[in-house]
Write a structure and sequence with these properties.
The protein is mainly beta. The protein is about 10% helix and about 55% strand. It has one helix and 13 strands, in the order αβββββββββββββ. The strands form three sheets. Strands 1-2-3-6-7-11-12-13 form an eight-stranded antiparallel β-barrel. Strands 9-8-10 form a three-stranded antiparallel β-sheet, with no helix packed on it. It has a two-stranded antiparallel sheet with strand order 4-5. The chain is elongated, with a radius of gyration of 27 Å.
Length: about 250
């Protein structure tokens, strides 16, 4: 009888162990068919925050994902420098006459180079994407004294290097937020991106990590951001994106 009980106890332990092993394997082999991520971007053509990135991906096979992306960026001229007004101390960018807001639509592939071990490690993907760009060129407004003798009466208007009233000493600051957006023009172009994606998350239904790479934005016409300097239609940039998302 004692031997029989020991045998049943032994078999029960084996059964429980097998169930736990199967459960762990099922959890560790979490399968997904799609993922959605969003991120905050820092790049060499933007400010402290370059913009925002959204990406939808679906698996084509165990190694390749098909991706659809949207990037919304504030693109700056390489010679932009914030300076302060001598009269008010307010900051503005002297010589800037236009903003460039880039809306980049992207279609691409993510190739899984290294698969992450369950609950640990880093998954590395090679990222490629290409697509059309829509550039919104909005006027950059400054606030200036109405004449050189008084700072009590002011006017807000787009910076023009040919206007003698727009000399550095006469500028008091920038215009209001979103002022002039209704006067924007559209520039059409295309973009291409190459990068490496590093996923660091430990929860399999969520995605956390960062991406680094190179992106080229090319427009059909030259985009005038600072009229007194050289302006281009090509905007090459290196970027760093922190992203978060989920899978299913």
């Amino acid at each position: 009888m004692g031997c029989s009980l020991r045998r049943w106890a032994f078999l029960t332990l084996i059964g429980v162990g097998a169930c736990l092993s199967v459960s762990a394997q099922t959890q560790d082999s979490y399968e997904y068919t799609s993922e959605f991520t969003w991120g905050i971007n820092k790049n060499s053509s933007g400010g402290l925050i370059g913009g925002f990135v959204f990406k939808k991906a679906r698996k084509l096979n165990d190694r390749v994902l098909e991706t659809f992306g949207l990037e919304i960026m504030n693109v700056k001229h390489g010679q932009e420098v914030r300076r302060s007004s001598r009269a008010t101390g307010n900051f503005f960018i002297y010589g800037k006459s236009n903003y460039l807001y880039a809306f980049r639509f992207q279609y691409g592939r993510d190739l899984i180079l290294f698969t992450k071990a369950p609950q640990q490690g880093v998954e590395i993907k090679a990222v490629t994407a290409i697509g059309p760009s829509i550039g919104v060129v909005a006027p950059y407004y400054i606030e200036r004294a109405l004449d050189n003798n008084s700072f009590f009466v002011t006017r807000k208007e787009q910076y023009n290097p040919d206007n003698p009233q727009h000399n550095f000493n006469n500028i008091l600051g920038t215009g209001s937020l979103f002022q002039g957006v209704g006067e924007s023009t559209i520039q059409l172009g295309a973009n291409v991106k190459l990068g490496l994606n590093f996923e660091l998350g430990t929860i399999k239904s969520q995605v956390t990590g960062f991406e680094v790479g190179f992106l080229l934005d090319a427009y059909f016409n030259k985009v005038i951001l600072m009229p007194s300097t050289t302006n281009n239609s090509l905007f090459p940039t290196v970027y760093f994106t922190l992203f978060y998302g989920n899978r299913r």
